Amino acid sequence: MNKLIISPSPHVHGEFSTKRLMRDVVIALLPALLVSFYFFGFGAVKVVGLSVISCVVFEFLIQKFLLKTAPSINDLSAVVTGLILSLNLPSNLPWWIVIIGSLIAIGVGKMVFGGLGNNPFNPALVGRVFLLIARPVEMTTWPLPLTAVTPDATTGATPLAIIKEGLKNGLTIDQIKESSDYTFSYLDTLFGQIGGSLGEVSAVALLLGFAYLLVRKVITWHIPVSIFAAVIVFSGILHFANPDRFIDPLFHLLTGGMILGAVYMATDYVTSPMTLKGMMVYGTGIGLLTILIRTFGSYPEGISFAILFMNAIVPLINKYMKPKLFGEVK
Amino acid sequence: MIKTFNRGGVHPPENKISRNAALEQLVPEGIIRIFISQHIGAPAECIVAKGDKVKTGQLIAKANGFVSANVHSSVSGTVLGIENIADYQGIKKPAVCIQVEGDEWEESIDRSAEINRDLSKTSEEILAKITEAGLVGLGGATFPTHVKLAVPKGKTAKAIIINGAECEPYLTSDHRVMLERGEELLIGVQLLKKAVNVDKAYIGIETNKQDAIDSLKKTAVNYSGIEIVSLEPKYPQGGEKQLIKSITGIEVPDRALPIETGCIVSNICTTLAVYEAVQKNKPLFENSITVTGKNLKIQKNFIVRVGTPLSQLIKAIGGIPENTGKIISGGPMMGRAVSNLEAPTMKGSGAVLFITDDEAKRGTKSNCIRCSKCVAACPMRLQPFLLYKLAERNMLEELKEISVHACIECGCCLYTCPANLPLVDYIRLGKTRAMKLIVKPK
Lengths: 330, 442
Prior knowledge:
By secondary structure, chain A is an all-alpha fold.
């Protein structure tokens, strides 16, 4: 007979492991990936593959040769970073830009702070924003979905950019909607028939993944729902005050990286608050900032910046939003 | 309506595989060793000597002070002496060793199976019987029952709460008692109510024991002021504070005793022991113990005499099964790993659990990914990840500031942690250090 093990309680462990959680995120992203492959073809496959492989390779190399620690690529966290980064990129991005983005995401976003669990900012977003600032032209030349390509147009603006451009030219929302650029319906934004980065095209595919994450208890509803609520309320007030200048909340919810950001990036464990109350404050902040940047800022899309900004505030949120002790006495 | 506490807790696989095994008396044999201290508080004072003949139920050690409890012989036979005996964890404590000879009970004990429904005894009489019988809380803490029932001056008791949650996986002895000794249990509840002068009692039972809920509800019709409350299965619902919250919705204030809410909580087996002590004159010298495990061929719920060596329980289920990694006294969440198979059972022993090699090994720890699952799982609403980090660095003042004292060591944080961090281990250590329960050796 074996020797008996002596250790303190508890003697059983639950179902969760880092690897399982990360694998669930990968599974949740599958519908969105498949939709992007369908609409953007081989370009999308290339960007996703390149991004994932280079993230994993960079993580391995940095851990092995720079940090000299045991590589932990088995926990799949680098795969998730690679996937999320790729979903933030246009499908026609040159290969070397994807690789640089991965290096920045893993190297600067994660490893300089000590690896998984220690990074203050979402690594994929660090990579994305770096590329957006360093290569703005390539990063904002959005290929049209294969189903919408015409002989004289292979690229086009995103819905958010169309609105931004129109408003800049002094048009009202209604005039923009009647213009020739505005070729899509809300139904298209639901299923992916619009221009944009890989992951921001199909709301339905992303929400399918959201449901999966909730069922598997990987995330709670608090962050995404408070982001959506803040977006609806804030953009709703603006729209109600001046419908000529501010587009309706549904448009904000369905376009750009709103769902991708709220469900998959804002909920990143490492960079989001530890308490449910804190998560709601954090989510509300992201929602407000996103609308602020989208409507008043110079970029058409703002959720990446909003998430990164709120990432920076997370330590403060954690400090002030503590759970209330059982039976707390004032 | 199904009730529960509102935040925290986990729900591990229930694994109540021994739920259908009826209570079964384990016949004592060989040498029985009864610890003189079976409870929290001052050790009792031994009043027998080598060579004395004792009967089953005879007093062998007297309570030493108020917070202490009498200890009775669980068998009849000859006292071999008082020796230092290693307990489950190998810590040596004085115990009375008795050679079993037959099973002759004290004449005063009523051994008939007839149920004594007489409820005419006064509060003082009931409390005196409980004190005399050496009753302690059988939920694990073994706090003397008469002390718990002594309501401090200035406080009033409003209700008795009986803990039938049995929220730990695997354990089924409370379940069996509720099913098989239902009416005696309810009489025990009435006696407890009378002892502290309240007219309301709740029995909280998790819905995974629906048969027990149904049968007790049926019997409770004949007993006034007893409400059976269905609880959603969730660990640690059997924790005193969580149970009060689940049933009454009131939170026991931080650092205060449960009596602050007017509730006195008692365990199922303790309540049955109250019945036996008051109505049958039977001291506490045996208790129900679940013997279970996934790789056991037979599952048992034994009634075991206090002081029976663990090895006898193991023999009764056919020896230690193959690939057993760990033997636990108690449930898998809060029980203790056993290192000494010859150790005698105690009043508070509730289960012997065999877990397999694979289950017994902890996963390798990795970085904290700040998933906040421990915060969500903590029933006391602490921040286990932070307590862990501070305890690891021995930052005692900071630990106190974030209420390390409130940790009930239920282990939900470690159970749920995806990075396999030894959260509760370090928090336990930090708590004992910060509260100066142990002093760091110089």
